[in-house]
Design brief:
- It comes from Streptomyces syringium.
- Residues 216-358 form the XdhC Rossmann domain.
- Pfam families: XdhC_C (PF13478), XdhC_CoxI (PF02625).
- Residues 365-392 are annotated as: Disordered.
- Residues 11-77, 129-190 form the XdhC- CoxI domain.
- By secondary structure, the chain is of the alpha/beta class.
- The protein contains ten helices and 16 strands.
- The chain has helices at 5-13, 56-69, 118-130, 168-184, 223-234, 265-270, 287-297, 311-323, 328-331, 347-363; strands at residues 18-27, 37-41, 46-48, 73-78, 94-102, 135-142, 151-154, 160-162, 188-193, 202-210, 215-219, 238-243, 259-262, 279-282, 304-307, 334-335.
- It has a six-stranded parallel β-sheet, with helices on both faces. A five-stranded antiparallel β-sheet has the order 3-2-1-5-4, sandwiched between helices.
- A hairpin with a 4-residue loop joins strand 2 (37-41) and strand 3 (46-48).
- Helix 1 packs across helix 3.
- The longest helix is centred in the middle third of the chain and has 17 residues, at 168-184.
- The chain is elongated, with a radius of gyration of 23 Å.
- The chain starts with a helix and ends in a 29-residue tail after the last helix.
- 43% of the residues are buried.
């Protein structure tokens, strides 16, 4: 839901009632991950997607029904061999979808006059996400009927908006679980007991994390960097281009970048606070820039470090890095020559090959063609598939 938060927040501010359908769990080959959402307002306008087209019409109708009834509903969609024309997923997977009506005219844009107001909590979550603030929204997607749909908003400083009902321990435990997923920048489901313990009647929560976009830092103000900045923005990264040469590192040459920095690459890197989602792309292929930069980059807990250059340049670079004390385990993290083998020649094609390697690294893909392969199309998240009705 937070992926379409900006538009939903505008709906709230305009007092438009709507229902939002959110994928809360998947099993097998599912087209969209948990957190994907479709929203429908009282006039029938729709935004977002939960399946890429397979079950959109049926979910649209569920949203309209929820707007009339005012009740949340949890539904499952999967493929039926007995009736191939029934509403379902042709890819063979199963998705669970929670539909929640939101009465914007009752104060969605505010936090609500009562802490238990689900509408107020959802409104606060949408407002936070629209402003780019860090927060986690935990919603009950399975458990006692009176609790399904209840929501709790958790911020990094520990403050909370809303309640899941029941005992105070439930909110505390849910907040701890949400904070853990928020710290990792992840969206997923967790199971706890209805009383906040690890026993008793189970409650399953969908935790959606709203975090600033991950960073892509491209070193080297060259034409390949301009193409990569555009692809990085398309993938949702906050893109920085850094180069020590002011004549090349200009905003006009990199219109897709969020920022262009004139600084020696290793000095710029030393001054940054980076997280585990950050990707570093070294396109300078110049030893005086590359070696001090990679010496530092390969020791940072970032998601990806790639460096451009020929195989001969790569071998020379490895020798230079070993000479300054970089160990073999650290060198094994280096993706060089950068990118997947797509036969790329142009800057745009090369940017695509780099982006493909970044996505494969992030999602656990093999990078091999799917045609004739026996690898999964959609890789399961770490920990395996999550389905509702079980306590983690």
């Amino acid at each position: 839901m937070l992926d379409i938060a900006e538009e939903l927040h505008r709906w709230c501010e305009r007092g438009r009632d709507f229902a939002v359908a959110t994928v809360v769990a998947t099993h097998g080959s599912a087209p969209r991950p948990p957190g994907a959402a479709l929203a429908v307002d009282a006039d029938g306008e729709a935004i977002g997607s939960v399946s890429g087209g397979c079950v959109e019409s049926a979910v649209y109708e569920l949203c309209q029904e929820a707007l009339v009834s005012g009740e949340s509903v949890l539904s499952s969609f999967g493929y039926s061999d007995e009736d191939a024309f029934a509403v379902g997923l042709t890819c063979g997977g199963v998705i669970d979808i929670l539909v929640t009506p939101v009465r914007s005219s009752g104060g969605c844009a505010e936090e609500g006059s009562a802490p238990e107001s689900v509408v107020g909590t959802l409104g606060a979550a949408l407002a936070a996400a629209a402003r780019g603030e860090t927060a986690a929204l935990a919603r009950v997607v399975a458990g006692p009927a009176e609790m399904v749909g209840r929501a709790l908003l958790v911020r990094p400083d520990g403050t909370r908006t809303g309640t899941l009902g029941g005992h105070g321990m439930l909110d505390r435990t849910a907040a701890e679980e949400a904070a853990a997923l928020l710290d990792a920048g992840r969206t997923g489901t967790v199971g706890i007991g209805a009383d906040g313990s690890r026993c008793g009647e189970p409650v399953v929560l969908l935790v959606e994390s709203s975090v600033p976009p991950p960073r892509m830092i491209v070193f080297g103000a060259i034409d390949f960097a301009a193409a990569l900045a555009g692809v990085g923005k398309f993938l949702g990264y906050h893109v920085t281009v850094c180069d020590a040469r002011p004549v090349f590192a200009t905003a006009g040459r990199f219109p897709a970048a969020d920022e262009v920095v004139v600084e020696w690459p290793h000095r710029y890197l030393d001054a940054q606070e980076l997280d585990a989602r950050t990707v570093l792309c070294v396109l300078t292929h110049d030893a005086k820039f590359d070696v001090p930069l990679l010496e530092r980059a390969l020791r940072l807990p970032v998601a990806y470090v790639g460096a451009m250059g020929s195989r001969r340049t790569h071998e020379d670079r490895l020798d230079r890095l070993r000479a300054v004390g970089v160990g073999e385990r650290e060198l094994d993290r280096l993706r060089s020559p950068i990118g997947l083998d797509l036969g790329a020649r142009t800057p745009e094609e090369t940017a695509l090959s780099i982006a493909a390697e970044i996505v494969a690294s992030r999602r656990g893909g093999s990078g091999v063609p799917l045609t004739g392969a026996h690898t999964p199309i959609h890789h399961e998240p770490r920990g395996g598939p999550e389905r509702l009705g079980s306590v983690a």
